[in-house]
């Protein structure tokens, strides 16, 4: 599905921006910030492909991913002030990113013969692991463990996908609905300042 | 060997509890604590399987591992106060866990044609890497590098396994003896407050 | 090529020393320091082999790597004071190490059918990831993100390799020149206190 491919490149681009911004806030040098932008963008898909033994890993054979990342990193360096003001815009892209990455992860997982629950987990891995590695490299407890309904939105979207799929819904339509559900849950949770309960 | 499989599930359950407790102490939210419980439980086996190229990865095709983890995480949330008082009980299960994980790791490594020393390392990887990832995610220097004869107990148990194996000891009996050796070394070292020397 | 193999063992030896020294400075115990020495030495090659799906992983089938690491760790424990004074010597070996690891990484990547840019990235991964994992385990933001022209030297050397290769230069000669370029860039940058600009 071409739409998903293009959305994937956009997700990669936006994740590269978010990684580069995090690294810049830690006063890392240009190289460090670029590498962290890179890892943020491809980390989730890479871990998913390693776990599922899907080779070759997507970004290792498609230059467009590299271009998307280079563009993301360069944009951050050039338009840094502007990008910070664009936080709202970034949030939207980032949210689209996790929606697309989740659905792409599920799609990839279905290439292997695994149970739906594991496919949903692979979807979440695709969407969140890049950010987790970014936070570890920046020496912080990963953001997704600390706030926001983020990964849980991915899980919910993945569950919706399989529920609709059991009704034989058209696959492309199902992808779009699932992505919208993820975007919706996350947006509403931010607007309403929802977060997961803390256990201590 | 069925016994080993059931002990593996118990190990998974106990490691999920230890991960969840660590995360809770860092004031992570419910989701974060669950994920860290999950990773603590499956991390070691996953890294071992990736290094040895053993696919599919066990927990991706067996729902019982998920149930063991869900049970471990839920138990921690529900019986938290009670579990803290049960530290001694937990210690026993955790120690059984590393014993079983070490022997299972060696057993898996023997599926591939590698030297005993690497099989022993794979045993130790199975038993310890989950805890290492748990500590990294919680932004701490991994516990096993800082105190206790923990990983060294795994190495010793692994060595015993191969020594007994060279005498053609019955495999199941050998598994049990090696597990008991690991449990014994760790228990004695805790009782006697032994720890590895520090080099600076 | 035998020369490359022996240089690889020397690189492994020196990286094991650098890992052990870092761990010792964090007051880790003997076991922790040894494991971190081990991971520093083999981490880069392992991640590269996992990404490229090259199995079995080199150090899992060749005892000489283990001996090189054991020797590195033991030397650090025995001759610690002496080694600290030898910082200059260590720097030279470490620099040779990253040069050799980069070229070896590219050579390995060429076993798979990927584009030059990805082979260069794999060269850099081979040379730097071990150090990155070392720093994460020691709970620090990875050194290569913070200072020195280190990874960029690897990238430059990798680029030189492919440029010379396009002129059909003899492969062994090309390996040596590329290694020397990496060593040269890093040495000059240290002497002249060059570093990458910081973006904030």
UniProtKB/TrEMBL annotation, chains A, B, C:
Could you list the residue ranges that cross the membrane? 6-24, 31-51, 57-79, 91-111, 117-137, 149-167, 173-190
List, for all copies, the residue spans of the domain called Glycine transporter: 6-80, 92-165
- Its domain of life reads Bacteria
| Primary location group | membrane
The record's subcellular locations are: Cell membrane
Q: Which UniProt keywords apply?
A: Cell membrane, Membrane, Transmembrane, Transmembrane helix
* Coiled-coil segments: none
Name of this protein: Trimeric intracellular cation channel family protein
Organism of this sequence: Splendidivirga corallicola
């Amino acid at each position: 599905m071409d739409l998903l491919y293009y959305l994937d490149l956009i997700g990669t681009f936006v994740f590269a921006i978010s990684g580069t911004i995090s690294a810049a806030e830690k006063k890392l040098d240009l190289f460090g910030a670029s590498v962290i932008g890179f890892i943020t963008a491809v980390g989730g898909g890479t871990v998913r492909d390693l776990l599922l033994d899907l080779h070759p890993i997507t970004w290792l054979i498609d230059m467009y991913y590299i271009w998307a990342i280079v563009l993301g990193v360069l944009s951050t360096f050039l338009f840094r002030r502007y990008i910070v003001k664009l936080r709202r815009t970034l949030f939207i892209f980032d949210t689209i990113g996790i929606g697309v990455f989740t659905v792409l992860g599920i799609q990839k997982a279905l290439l292997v013969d695994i149970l739906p629950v594991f496919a949903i987990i692979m979807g979440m891995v695709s969407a969140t692991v890049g950010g987790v590695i970014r936070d570890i490299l920046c020496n912080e407890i990963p953001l997704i463990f600390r706030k926001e309904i983020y990964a849980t939105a991915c899980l919910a979207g993945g569950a919706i996908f399989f529920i609709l799929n059991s009704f034989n819904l058209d696959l492309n339509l199902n992808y779009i609905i699932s992505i919208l559900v993820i975007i919706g849950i996350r947006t509403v949770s931010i607007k309403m300042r929802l977060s997961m309960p803390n256990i201590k």
